[in-house]
Amino acid sequence: GQQLNQNPQSMFIQEGEDVSMNCTSSSIFNTWLWYKQDPGEGPVLLIALYKAGELTSNGRLTAQFGITRKDSFLNISASIPSDVGIYFCAGQSQVGAQKLVFGQGTRLTINP
Amino acid sequence: GAVVSQHPSRVICKSGTSVKIECRSLDFQATTMFWYRQFPKQSLMLMATSNEGSKATYEQGVEKDKFLINHASLTLSTLTVTSAHPEDSSFYICSANIQGDGELFFGEGSRLTVL
């Protein structure tokens, strides 16, 4: 089945640093979604991408839908303590389809 | 914005008992809801697709007789873990989207512990 490869699996950074993570797929996706999950909570949608090449921002977060439609990137600028958590990419292979394939997650830890 | 709510958030039960988890869409109608399971430090794994008014569609390897799903209305889907065993202990999360919208919203999750 379809799989998403998310990297890195974990990150340890200093407060104020920028963060980059990415997801790659062996097959094409038509929608990319980025979620953040805090411990004991459900994932919260951060950014949704619907078009190849699309670059979308949400505050300090910026995500891009790769031109090949096989990858996506999430960047966090000037990290703050509340950015700690697990970030998941998710993809949908068909437009309007609701079934999501998730990446393995990137666990972000911030040292004050 | 759209809100998906789960209940209970935590449940502890004895082995052999059944547990029901509810998933509600609070301000929109959801013809389709999804149930995921997440083990510690792992990603979300789709268990089944819950379809309002019809049978759920289960992913490969998920026992439909063990994980009973009912989607009786456009705002409620339930997952019943029957004859629970300790290996069923996990974080169960539901999701739904506004019809025609690709963005999926997740519930808060329900942590099941089977003793």
What features would you describe in this structure?
The complex is a heterodimer of chains A (112) and B (115). Chain A has no helices and eleven strands. With 112 residues, chain A is mainly β. In chain A, the strands form two sheets. In chain A, strands 2, 4, 5, 9, 10 and 11 form a six-stranded mixed beta sheet that branches. In chain A, strands 1-3-8-7-6 form a five-stranded antiparallel beta sheet, with no helix packed on it. By secondary structure, chain B is an all-beta fold. Helix content of chain B is 0%, strand content 50%. In chain B, the strands form two sheets. In chain B, strands 2, 4, 5, 6, 9, 10 and 11 form a seven-stranded mixed beta sheet that branches. A four-stranded antiparallel beta sheet of chain B has the order 1-3-8-7, with no helix packed on it. In chain B, strand 9 and strand 10 form a beta hairpin. Chain B starts with a strand and ends with a strand. The chains are: A mainly beta (112), B mainly beta (115).
The outline of chain A comes out as globular
**Which word captures the global form of chain B?**
globular
**Averaged pLDDT of chain B:** 91
What is the tally of helical segments of chain A?
A: 0
Beta content of chain A? over 45%
Helical segment tally of chain B? 0
Tell me the span between the first and last alpha carbons of chain B: 37 Å
Rg of chain A, alpha carbons: 13 Å
Topology:
The complex is a heterodimer of chains A (112) and B (115).
Chain A: E1 4-7, E2 10-14, E3 19-25, E4 31-37, E5 44-49, E6 55-58, E7 61-65, E8 71-76, E9 85-92, E10 101-102, E11 106-111
Parallel strand pairs in A: 2-11
Antiparallel strand pairs in A: 1-3, 3-8, 4-5, 4-9, 6-7, 7-8, 9-10, 9-11
Chain B: E1 4-7, E2 10-13, E3 19-25, E4 32-38, E5 45-51, E6 57-58, E7 67-73, E8 76-81, E9 90-96, E10 105-106, E11 110-114
Parallel strand pairs in B: 2-11
Antiparallel strand pairs in B: 1-3, 3-8, 4-5, 4-9, 5-6, 7-8, 9-10, 9-11
